[in-house]
Design a protein that fits this description.
Length: about 550
C-alpha cells in the first residue's frame, strides 16, 4: 500500500505526553500527525500534578495560565495523612484559617519563575487539545495504528479509523511512541525493559460524593486508609464531590479485580470514608498495577519511546506525566534541527543518553516512596523512606538532574579562584542548578528592554549565549558562527550596562563565570557549554565557540 499521507513526525498516543509532543513540535515549526485510539481525551483523572519544570515548559508555550485555570478547583489540595477512616482523619485536623502555601514555595521562588500546580489529566488534556489544534496540530482521535514498518529513510504506519473501518497509511520521517504503559509499539519492537516490575494490585475507583461539609478548610491531597477491612488511599480531585480511591487487593488470597462491582465498591467506600449512609455514585472502576519498568533503549531506528511507553513508575512522586512531557521537550528541538538539516542525525542519539537515565532514576526514586504493595508510604521511621524523600525534593520540582551526552561540552577550565562564587546552596545541593554544563539554566529575574523577565524566558526556539559584563568578544563570535553554521544564536550581555540587568547583579556569581565568561544554552534551556573566563594563550572565542556548537550539533 502506497502511503497516502507524508509527514515529518507521526505521534502515536494522544494523552498528555503525545499532545505535548504535538505542541513542542509546532513551537519549532515542525508538522506532525497525532493518532489516538480512543474517541476523545481521558475521562479518568489519572495524573494530578504538574511540577515546576513542566510549568516552565507550558510557560514557554504561553499557556501556563490556562493550565492553572484548569486546575483551579484543586488549589487547596495539600497534605498526606493516614488513619482508619477519612472522617476520623479529617475531623482531627485543625481547620485552615487562611490560604495554605506549599511547604517549599519560598525555596521554589528562587528556583523557578513558576510554581507547580495540581490539575487532573481529564481537565488538562482538553486544554492541550485546544491549543495544539490552534497551533496547527493534526489530531486524529478514534484512530488506531495497526502496523508499523521502518526502513533507513522513514516509518510507515497503517492506520484504521475505528468508526468507519477505513484503512490508510502514513509515511513519516520519524515516529514518537507515546502510547502508554502497555505500549503496543514498544511490544512490537521487542524492547527490553528493566526494573522490579509489578509492585501491587490496585483498583482505581472514581466516584462522586458530597464531602465538602467534611473537608471544607481541611482539604488534603492523599489520605491513606488502613483498617482490618480495607487498605487504600483517597486522592482529592476537586475537594468537593469528585474523588478517587485506590483500593489494594491481593490475588494470592483469591481476590480478583472482577470482584469489585459498583455495589461492592460503594460498600467499601462507605467503610473507608466512615459515613455508613453516604450517597455515592461510582463513575468508573479501573484496575491497575503500580510498576517499575524502564526501557533499556529509547531509540529504535527512527522510532522514539516517550512517557509511560519508556518508563513506568508509581504515581506517588508525581513523576509519570511530568517525566514524559520533559521527554518530548528534549526530543522536539533535536528532531527540528535534524529535519532542517542544521544538525547531524547523531544528535538524535543523545535523546536516549539524556532521558533514559532520568526516567530510570525517577522510577527508582518514586518506588522508594511506595510500600511493598505499591501504595504511598508514610512510614517516616523507615530510613529508606526518609532518604527517598530528600532525593525526591529535586525530582518533585523536575529539576534534580543533569545531562551527560555528546550534546553537552564538558568543562576544561577550573573554578574561578579570583571570584567569590555563591550559587544558592540548596539549589546546588538538591536541584543541581549552578550553570554546570548539562544543568538547566538558573532562573534569575532580569530586566530586558524595560520588561521584567526570567532568564528562562530567553530560551525556547534558539540557542542562547549569555555573557558577563565584558563578554563582547563572545557576542561577536556568536554572530559569525551563526552565519557559518546557518543557525540562530540569540546573544545577551549582562551587568548594569548590559542587555540584561539581573536583580542585585548576581548573574556572574550565580553562574560561576567572570565578567569575560560566557554560557551557551540549548533550545531546551539546558547549559551546553560554559567558559568561566577568556583564557589567554588558547583558541580565540570564535574557535572555542564554533567547536562547542559543532559538538553540540554532533557535527564533529
Amino acid at each position: 500500500m502506497a502511503a497516502e499521507h507524508q509527514i515529518p513526525i507521526l505521534i502515536i498516543g494522544g494523552g498528555i505526553v503525545g499532545l505535548s509532543a504535538s505542541l513542542f513540535l509546532s513551537q519549532h515549526g515542525i508538522q506532525s500527525i497525532l493518532i489516538e485510539r480512543h474517541s476523545g481525551t481521558s475521562i479518568h483523572p489519572r495524573a494530578r500534578s504538574v511540577n515546576a519544570r513542566t510549568m516552565e515548559l507550558f510557560r514557554g508555550l504561553g499557556m501556563d495560565d490556562l493550565v492553572r485555570e484548569a486546575g483551579a478547583s484543586m488549589k487547596a489540595t495539600m497534605g498526606i495523612h493516614k488513619g482508619k477512616t477519612l472522617k476520623e482523619v479529617i475531623e482531627a485536623k485543625k481547620p485552615a484559617d487562611g490560604p495554605r502555601k506549599f511547604p517549599l514555595a519560598g525555596l521554589m521562588n528562587s528556583i523557578s519563575p513558576v510554581q507547580g500546580t495540581f490539575v487532573t489529566q481529564d481537565m488538562l488534556e482538553p486544554v492541550l487539545v485546544d491549543v495544539a489544534r490552534e497551533r496547527g496540530g493534526d489530531l486524529r482521535f478514534y484512530t488506531e495504528c495497526i502496523s508499523i514498518q521502518q526502513d533507513s529513510d522513514s516509518v510507515t504506519a497503517t492506520l484504521k479509523d475505528r468508526e468507519t473501518g477505513a484503512v490508510s497509511s502514513v509515511r513519516a520521517e520519524y515516529l514518537i511512541a507515546a502510547d502508554g504503559a502497555g505500549s503496543p509499539i514498544r511490544n512490537r519492537l521487542n524492547v527490553l525493559t528493566s526494573g522490579q516490575g509489578t509492585m501491587g494490585h490496585l483498583i482505581n475507583i472514581l466516584f462522586q460524593a458530597d464531602l465538602k461539609p467534611l473537608v471544607h478548610k481541611r482539604e488534603f491531597s492523599i489520605c491513606v486508609i488502613e483498617s482490618p477491612e480495607i487498605y487504600g488511599a483517597f486522592t482529592s480531585i476537586n475537594n468537593d464531590d469528585r474523588w478517587v480511591f485506590h483500593l489494594a487487593y491481593d490475588p494470592s488470597k483469591g481476590e480478583q479485580a472482577s470482584d469489585f462491582t459498583p455495589e461492592k465498591c460503594i460498600e467499601l467506600l462507605r467503610i473507608a470514608i466512615g459515613i455508613p449512609d453516604l450517597e455515592i455514585d461510582v463513575k468508573s472502576i479501573l484496575p491497575w498495577e503500580p510498576s517499575v519498568r524502564v526501557a533499556d533503549q529509547l531509540q529504535h531506528g527512527r522510532i522514539f519511546l516517550a512517557g509511560d511507553a519508556a518508563h513506568q513508575m508509581p504515581p506517588w512522586g508525581g513523576q509519570g506525566a511530568n517525566s514524559g512531557i520533559t521527554d518530548v521537550h528534549n526530543l522536539a528541538w533535536k528532531l527540528a534541527l535534524v529535519l532542517q538539516k542544521q544538525a547531524s542525525k547523531r544528535l538524535l542519539e543523545t535523546y536516549n543518553a539524556e532521558r533514559q537515565p532520568v526516567g530510570k532514576t525517577a522510577a527508582v526514586v518514586s518506588a522508594s516512596g511506595s510500600d511493598k504493595r505499591g501504595m504511598v508510604s508514610l512510614n517516616l521511621r523507615d530510613p529508606a523512606v526518609i532518604v527517598g524523600f530528600y532525593k525526591r525534593i529535586g525530582l518533585i520540582s523536575g529539576h534534580g538532574y543533569t545531562y551527560a551526552s555528546n550534546s553537552i561540552c564538558p568543562e576544561n577550565t577550573s573554578p574561578l579562584s579570583g571570584l567569590t562564587w555563591k550559587p544558592w546552596t540548596l539549589a546546588s545541593l538538591f536541584f543541581l542548578l549552578d550553570s554546570r554544563p548539562g544543568s538547566r539554566l538558573p532562573h534569575l529575574w532580569t530586566t530586558h528592554e524595560g520588561k521584567r523577565i526570567s532568564t528562562l524566558d530567553l530560551c525556547g526556539q534558539k540557542f542562547t549565549l549569555l555573557t558577563g559584563a565584558k563578554g563582547e568578544a563572545w557576542i561577536e563570535a556568536a554572530k559569525l558562527i551563526s552565519k557559518t553554521l546557518a543557525i540562530d544564536i540569540s546573544t545577551y550581555t549582562t551587568g548594569p550596562n548590559g542587555d540584561l540587568v539581573t536583580e542585585n547583579n548576581v548573574f556572574e556569581t550565580t553562574t560561576g563565570i567572570s565578567s569575560q565568561g560566557a554560557i551557551l544554552v540549548r533550545p531546551d534551556g539546558f547549559v551546553a557549554w560554559r567558559a568561566r573566563r577568556q583564557e589567554s594563550g588558547v583558541e580565540t572565542p570564535q574557535i572555542q565557540l564554533e567547536l562547542a556548537m559543532r559538538r553540540i550539533l554532533c557535527l564533529l
